[in-house]
Structures are given as C-alpha cells and as structure tokens.
Amino acid sequence: MKTHAIHSNEQTFPTIVKATAVGGIAGYAAKYMLPLTSDEMDDEFKGAMNIIKTESKKAKAKSIDSIRKIANKTPAQDTFIKMVDVENSEGLTKAGRAGKMKKVLEEAKLSATDKIQLRSIISNVNEKAGEMFQRCAKAYEGAVKRTRHTGTFIAAGAAVGFAAGLIHNILRTDA
Q1: Could you say which of 44, 103, 118, 135 is the most buried, measured as most Cβ atoms within 10 Å of its Cβ?
Q2: Residues 6+ apart with CB under 8 A from 148
Q3: What is the C-alpha to C-alpha distance for residues 62 and 89, in angstroms, rounded to an integer?
Q4: Predicted confidence (pLDDT) per residue in 97-130, tens digit
C-alpha cells in the first residue's frame, strides 16, 4: 500500500461526480422500469383496465361478425360460427358446452385442411383481441408511470451513486 503526502495532487472528486450522475440516470430509468405499485393500481386504474377489456371484447365480436357475414362460408368458417354460438349459449354448464362443442366438430366432418383453417381462424380472432388488450394496457401502464415524480427517482439514484462513489474512494487502495 502506498502512502501519500497530505497535499497529494490526486483528485477524487471526479469519481464521486461520475458515480452521482450514473446513479441519477439509473434512478430516472427506474421510474419506468419498476412495476406499478398497489397504490398506483387504484380504482381508476382498474376501471380503465375494465374499459380496455370491454373494447377488446368488442373487437373480437366485430371480427366474429365479419366472418358471420360472409355469404359463401368454408366448412371451417361455418364450424367456427357454430362453435361461437355454442360458446355464447346460456344455461349450459362447462361440461354441457364441451359436449355440444364436440358434437359440432363431429358433425362438421372437416378435412385436414379445413381443420388447419379452423385452428387458424380461432387463433387469429383470439390474437386480434389479445393484441389490442396488450397494446392498450401497456400504453395505460406507461401513462401511469409517466405521472410518477421524476425528481424522487433521480434524487434516490443520485444519492446511491454518491454513496457508492464515496465508498469507492474511501476503500480504494493503490498497490
């Protein structure tokens, strides 16, 4: 370990400044990276999520209606519409729905290509609604995160960075 004279020309200040700046930047990034807290997911947030769910269900219903309006449906499209009707029928238990759904599929007698088309239709309709929900939910979460107080996160990050720089300078040894 080297010993230094009291009036050393070695500057430790830039290390602390750099660490503080990096800490402040990390604090700013943490504002957007940290998940929402339970306080932020209040009734207003839950209400907005319910509206987004409702709108995505409407989008799903629209795409189903567009298939329903096709004049000359393929066997897969026709089977899909029958499956949707079974799914939307009231007064059936889960087991009753499953039985009716199985009956619809058996009565359709779909070929291999029709079965592939049916799976494609089902996944496309579900993906449209799911993607819409995900996009809108992420956008709303981002909006909630943008309302967080930036100064608090920057100050906390800068304080941690300052402490890390100071500790680094204190514990630094020159070999």
Answers
A1: 118
A2: 31, 40
A3: 18
A4: 888 888 888 888 888 888 898 899 989 998 988 8
